[in-house]
Amino acid sequence: MDFSNRNAQAQPAAAGHAAPASAGVGGSKRANKPDTDKVARIVQAAVAFLVAILLVFVALTVYSSTKNSEEGFVDSSKLQAVFLNTGQVYFGKISSLNNKYFVVKDIYYLQTSSNGSSTAASASNTSVSLVKLGCELHEPYDQMVINADQVTFWENLQDNGQVAKAVATFQKQNPSGQKCSDQSASSGTSASSVQNAGTSNTPAATNPTAKP
Description:
CATH architecture of the largest domain: Roll
Structural class: alpha+beta
Order of helices and strands: HEEEEEEHE
Distance between the termini: 144 Å
Shape: elongated
Number of domains: 2
Number of helices: 2
């Protein structure tokens, strides 16, 4: 019997059995690749999250420093005077301010009146009154938004000042707020009163400014 042919035929079979083993090694390498990609995605997500937190922190820091740079000087327990570059001044409570606008509430302003004479001597008969905003012909709400570039300066007012005292007296005499009952009446009837613009039934209060 010839055993040499049998041995020659058996060799390819052995080689055929070895092929799946090498394929198994390649499959193991391919199986490890998805795990590496997953770790990379997790790292990228963590970095993006940390960057987002850093940006939010920087934005809050900038906003806080900008806000506190001027708004931090507003004393909410006091009245403020806001002077405009037109020469007008408003007294009230600054509720908000930034580099674009001021928001003022509970507003009063000065109003002058005279006897109508055009002579130089009439200056001695001119009086100044403090008027509560709200009863003008257009009946505005008691809130004003002023462009920041129109404001020359503003300041907190002391409680013992004439304006603060006049406002306190007016609020005490009008606990329910002002009433615009007569829009046709004159608004400059008294030199020593805080009055409703357009009304004639507001109680007199302390004179906010002395006669010139």
